[in-house]
Structures are given as structure tokens and as C-alpha cells.
Amino acid sequence: MTTSATYTVPDWLKLREGSLKPGVRTETTFVMLSGQPLYKLEVRPTTGTFACAVSNTVNGKRLDDAKSTYPTPEAALAGGLEQLRLVLGW
Question: Of 22, 21, 63, 71, which Cα lies nearest the Cα of 45?
């Protein structure tokens, strides 16, 4: 499952000079702001679909709704980024 290597940085993140960085495991992607990995997105398989766990790397707090599922790993990463955007109010 390769998600971060093929995913485009969303405009709302580019506007804040943010980027995406792949983690050691292919299912993990970090949201980088000011050169720091502030948020972690983990694409996880669920029954026939995928979910994306979004957490703050500083305190480990989960930021996703833990209910949303997506048909592909790429859609799960995009959905996780959208959930992060909404939580941050961007």
C-alpha cells in the first residue's frame, strides 16, 4: 500500500508552506509544518475498505472521527487530510 508517494499536497497545506512526508511504514504519512512532523496519518485496512487515523504527533491525540471509511488507500489518505483540515479550521 503506497499512499504518500503518489499523493499530491493539497492547496490548503501548500498555502501554509506545509508538505507531506512518507513514514518508515508505507501506510504512514506525516504532515510537515515549519519543517516539523506535527500530524501523523495512518491508512488502515478495515472490512473491505480503508480508514485513516489522524493524530497529533506532540500529544498523540486522535483528530479523526474514527468512523469514516474509504474505498482505496489513496481515498483514505485524502479523507484523513480533509478531516485534519476541518479540525484545524483551515
Answer: 71
Query: Residue 50: CB partners within 8 Å, gap ≥ 6?
Result: 43, 44, 69, 70, 71, 72, 73, 75, 76
Total structural domains within the chain: 1
pLDDT tens, residue by residue, 9-45: 999 999 999 999 999 999 999 999 999 999 999 999 9
Residue range of the domain that includes 16: 4-88
Type of residue at 32: M
Confidence (pTM): 0.88
Using the structure block, give the residue that is written with the C-alpha cell 518508515. 24
pLDDT tens-place string over residues 52-61: 999 999 999 9
CA distance 44 to 89: 25
Which residues make Cβ contacts (< 8 Å) with residue 14, sequence separation at least 6? Answer: none
